Phosphate starvation-inducible protein PhoH-like protein
Amino acid sequence: MATRRPAAAPARRSRKSAPPTKLFVLDTNVLMHDPTSLFRFEEHDIFVPIMTLEELDNNKKGMTEVARNARQASRLLDEIVSGDEERIAEGIPLAAASSDLASGHLLLQTEAINGTLPTALPTAKADNQIIAVVMHLSQRHPGRQVILVSKDINMRIKARALGLHAQDYFNDKVLEDTDMLYTGTRELPDGFWEEHGGNLESWKENGRTLYRVKGPLCPDLLINEFVFKEAGPKQDKAFHAWVRERNGRTAVLETLIDFSHHKNSVWGITARNREQNFALNLLMNPEVDFVTLLGQAGTGKTLLTLAAGLTQVLESKLYSEIIMTRVTVPVGEDIGFLPGTEEEKMTPWMGALEDNLDVLNKTDDPNGSGEWGRAATLDLIRSRIKVKSLNFMRGRTFLNKFLIIDEAQNLTPKQMKTLITRAGPGTKVVCLGNIAQIDTPYLTEGSSGLTYVVDRFKGWPHSGHVTLQRGERSRLADHAAEVL
């Protein structure tokens, strides 16, 4: 007996010294938002209440994204549990199912839990039953941190009011602070040319000037990032360029086409500010396959994109047609079922398209051909623009198309992936949106699909991004955006 005690004591001490892993209780909306959240908690354990499984079952029917995610979450749970039924109560290791992404355990509720909820909370409600499970687990494991994970704000408030730990699901967030989001533009610091112009090389190519610069700023530059230096006391002329190559402390800057000049107008539209000029350089460059434009209402995202699309479809014939799509999320009350074909059903959602076509059709009338000429031009334009619903995008491939995804801030990262992977050879994809106007529940500025693609595509040689700053719609719209 005496020889066994010293051997057991160190083991007990080492177990105490290791910090206990957390136990996360998952709400249903987390699994329906991201089914792979089962594998996102690293070394910590996750607990799935019976009520979460019931709600997954209730939401599995239908063709919506939520229903698809509910079915995928159920399939993942089935894969993890099958063959390991006897270990459900103590916890099934997640390492094998997650390909070593997670080293914790999955626990399922195997017994009835009679939590003592306050009388004001009705036990018939699913949210309250999950909160009761969290209370029970906190009492059962007093030395362990039990945390409710939910995307439902009110449920988290209720849990915290009862003294429980609760938090949002953060793994899908690209950035905690959207002010850190890549803008696609960079102002060159004072003294840039003195520091980087020591062994300056410059040459002409396709009518544009290229500069090879070397210095401390070059490693921070990204391919297709726009750099600028406005005219000032030390600089007579503004310098606008974009990064075409980057290799360590060396970068190649290429001057831009000046789309603010009438001779370079795009379907009668000229750039009204610096960022619009940057955007048109991306939209009109056939080497750039993927463009993202962010900006508040009235910055010209849709107008610039449609003008570039029409020019390249009807004039240079680079693309066969424009395809425009958007998420059908109503701002107010839904107007119910809509009659007609897919295109006719989408018409009420495409008011932005109609408004911009009116503007573009008025600008493209150099010979004064009158109402008949304008009507004929509008008919031609409409014949080359197709409006599609997101619901029928799976399995499609777009060849030689100019694909515009409007209101892209309402897409989840998974939906965004589904859409962008539809692009076949010769197709250009343009995503437009304003992350300050998200209408979808459970999506935030940090977890929006638009934020996701801006962050993931930055620096790729065939993509570009610009955040448009100045509103150009009207003085009323600009003032309203500032003060309201």
In short: The chain is about 35% helix and 20% strand. Confidence is low (pLDDT under 50) at residues 1-17, 330-335.
